[in-house]
Amino acid sequence: MLEINGVRAGYGAINVLWDVSMQVTRGEVTTIVGPNGAGKTTLLRAIMGLLPLQRGQIELDGKPLSGVSTWDLLARGIAMVPEGRLIFRDMSIEENLMMGAFPKAKRAAAHAQLDEVFTLFPLLKERRALQAGTLSGGQAQMLALGRGLMSSPELMLIDEPSLGLAPVIVQEVFEILARLKAAGRTIVLVEQNTSMALRIADQVYLMQGGKITLTQRAKDVNIDTLHDLYFAR
Fold it and tell me: pTM score, two decimals?
């Protein structure tokens, strides 16, 4: 579905990604793990067109994404749930969700999609008229996931959903991700909680220093070996 071949990208004169290649298969959860500064978020930003590629190619269903504006990627079926949630705190919960269906091509189905999101997140339905700033961290993460689902994306990029959350809330968030997987969603998940991430992953990539240092099916990953590589032991 998504092909990343030999990608180099970064910020100005600072290069972060070094010849990164990976494949994302439709209907699977592809998990990218790695320490802080490994380039995980940078890779997601490169996919979304937020960073120009210095080298390499990114393709969706065989069609290159180079030169496609970030705001046009939603119409092509890609949605990103960013690190830190980035919800609109002064807008209502329902208004936040409707922003996820902002592109014209998505608006006709917005209300039907809203019902689906409310089925998945009943708490958001109960509080739909409240300001998003009243939500706890875990609830805000649910809102961010719901907003990402509002465009009914073929591919979801989810960046560090457990960041800053209490362990019991992390468990709840990953149960939701498992439900999305069971529904056939294609997900690229960036996560530092390796144990939780491996539970729902099909394919695992380890990133270090802007490079892919391990590629393995999740069922074949030895967690101790992964942690030795992760921490460069």
Answer: 0.91
